[in-house]
Amino acid sequence: MAYYERFDAGAAIYEASRPKLGDQFVKIMHLYHPASLHTLVDVGCGTGLSTEQLAAHAQEVIGIDANVRMLSIAKKKTNHVMRFMEGNSEALPLSSHCADGIIVSQAFHWMEPQATLQEFGRVLKADGALFVVDYDWQFMLGAKVELILEKMRRQLSIWLTREGLDTRPPYSKAGHLTSLKQSRVFRFVREIHFSQWALFEARSLWNCELSKSSVQMLLPQLSGQEKAILNSFYHQLAEVLPTPIEGCILYTCYIGLV
Hints:
It is a single chain. By secondary structure, the chain is an alpha/beta fold. It has helices spanning 11-17, 23-32, 49-54, 68-74, 113-123, 143-163, 176-183, 202-210, 213-218, 224-240, and strands spanning 39-43, 60-65, 82-86, 99-105, 124-135, 188-200, 245-257. A seven-stranded mixed β-sheet has the order 3-2-1-4-5-7-6. Helix 5 (113-123) packs across helix 7 (176-183). The longest helix has 21 residues, at 143-163.
């Protein structure tokens, strides 16, 4: 199974529950690429969550993903600024030196880094910029909520181990900075940490855990009793979160300037 096929079953739940980039990232993008952004490319765009946000900051935004089901959702968002294309990070369906910026949001760990970065170097303009963004799954939500999510993750881990399902992406996020440096594509490389506050409610938090590709592969293997246990975590979350709360997401951004 190709890595992107792991997300086939969860495209809709991914669209409904995954966090967006947020305004803090946009400020960082403009700080490190203050020139006019005509064309931005969102590689590994999934359902277009990050592409939507980028559309307000460029004249053209192109979302690219290898997963057809994800793209079917993304393409419904097409407008005069946004368009979406099927493609692989190692062979982008774009001409050379056409992009002011490339953004990879919560997806670079699925891509072979060196082949991908060389391809990014081909597509970026001479003064272009790459922004690789990841978030920490341990959202800051308060102890009551975090304890329920911790129990849910422990239970999912037990089932995943039983079914022999690998939860690890092929490339470690810890290696992103080194990969950018070793590529020799960029004259400037930096790692930045930032945070973003967002509203969370019980259903979105529960769905966010279920949207992970390994969990989507697990769900068909669960018995009725096990699915009831999984549903019980939602009811626990709903009990302590009768209304939405504001929580904090911790991000890491890896920047490469050509």
